[in-house]
Design goal:
This protein has about 350 residues and is α/β, with parallel strands linked by helices. The chain folds into 2 domains: about 260 residues, no CATH class; about 30 residues, no CATH class. About 35% of the residues lie in helices and about 15% in strands. It has 11 helices and 11 strands. A hairpin with a 5-residue loop joins β3 and β4. α7 packs parallel to α9, α8 runs parallel beside α10 and α9 packs antiparallel against α10. The chain is globular and about 85 Å long.
Length: about 350
């Protein structure tokens, strides 16, 4: 019996990646075309860009406005992008100073996600119970029982419930593969993110591969996040992708097919996007316009006209590139297929 259990554990470890730092070389080797999908920006029809000067020392292609290309982060430079906890301490301080990059301890992410679920379920401690030890440290104890739903709601309602993490960084509120403050790897059963909880529900209620994949796609289509910095955005996308692979491997003891992985990566590339959260546009895309006027004497003068939205602090008046997302449940007026493209700011009431 012990030998059998050990063999199962070894097979599970082979199928799942328990490395905190997901390597772009590994993605490219194991999952062809997936890295290219994860780097896509659907608003600009280009790749996401660095949006930070932290990589300028590496030379051409690593400037602030440069797109993140696969060849820049693979091969000999396959370790260039790494989680914040693995970055140099000085670099961490610089990012805190310049971009207010501060990651929330996982126990706080758990506590806040618990509040959302307490309101949704109408009761406390649905997925886990928060623990405070005598020395003041925080953790949680996972509820091992199958989740029970209120009379007026089903597991499918929970999977379809739309949720958004703003300025997501490496997306610890969405998926907790690791603690972004300590670097500790979190086993699937103990994860507390928005997406982790949806996938747990699916694991408990669906036993066929086809049904599981359909439900998982629904979960991903209803989970959104945005981030300014390109490296953090890629880390968030990678974590969400590997969360899918981890859960499928745990459930079915084999990895999902490459076509399923590519489709999840495609959903992620739409739902987790690069944006200035205060303006609703691609970072730094607002600009001043030069207007030329001619007076009665034929003399010309140029007047610089700044972005109206930036001047008025109005999210609906910017001249930058407004970010697009997909409403996966609505039909596109052109293709007549589900998946209508909309501006993110269309979700925000005009005042």
């Amino acid at each position: 019996m012990k030998i059998c259990q050990t063999n199962k554990q070894n097979e599970r470890q082979r199928l799942m990646s328990n490395e905190v730092d997901i390597l772009e070389n590994e993605i490219r080797e194991k999952y062809p075309e997936v890295l290219e999908i994860l780097l896509r920006d659907h608003t600009t029809q280009k790749n996401i860009f660095w949006a930070t000067d932290n990589y300028r020392e590496f030379g051409n292609g690593y400037e602030y406005d440069s797109p993140i290309l696969p060849e820049l982060i693979t091969g000999e430079r396959g370790h260039i992008i790494m989680p914040r906890v693995k970055k140099d301490k000085l670099l961490q301080q610089i990012r805190v100073r310049d971009m207010a990059e501060v990651f929330t301890p996982l126990w706080i992410c758990n506590a806040q996600n618990n509040l959302i679920d307490e309101a949704w379920f109408g009761r406390k401690n649905v997925f886990n119970t928060e623990i405070v030890t005598s020395d003041g440290s925080h953790s949680w104890k996972t509820n091992p029982e199958k989740i029970v739903f209120p009379d007026n709601k089903t597991w499918k309602d929970y999977v379809r419930d739309t949720r958004l993490e703003i300025t997501c960084g490496e997306a610890p509120y969405v998926t907790s593969r690791y603690d972004t403050t300590t670097g500790e790897y979190i086993p699937v059963e103990k994860r507390i993110g928005i997406l982790d909880r949806k996938l747990r529900i699916i694991n408990e209620n669906v036993d066929t591969s086809g049904g599981w994949l359909e439900a998982a796609q629904t979960a991903y289509k209803n989970t959104y996040a945005f981030e300014w910095q390109g490296d953090s955005l890629l880390l968030a996308r990678e974590a969400m992708l590997y969360t899918f692979i981890d859960n499928y491997s745990l459930k079915f003891q084999q990895q999902p097919q490459i076509r399923s992985i590519r489709y999840i990566a495609y959903i992620i590339s739409w739902n987790v996007w690069q944006m200035d959260g205060l303006k609703g546009v691609v970072p730094n895309s607002c600009h001043s316009k030069i207007s030329t006027e001619t007076n009665l004497f034929g003399e010309t003068s140029s007047i610089e006209m700044p972005c109206k939205g930036c001047v008025n602090d109005n999210i609906h008046q910017h001249n930058g590139i407004y970010c697009l997302i997909k409403d996966w449940g609505a039909k596109d007026p052109e293709t007549k297929k589900k998946g209508r493209k909309i501006k993110f700011t269309e979700l925000i009431k005009k005042t």
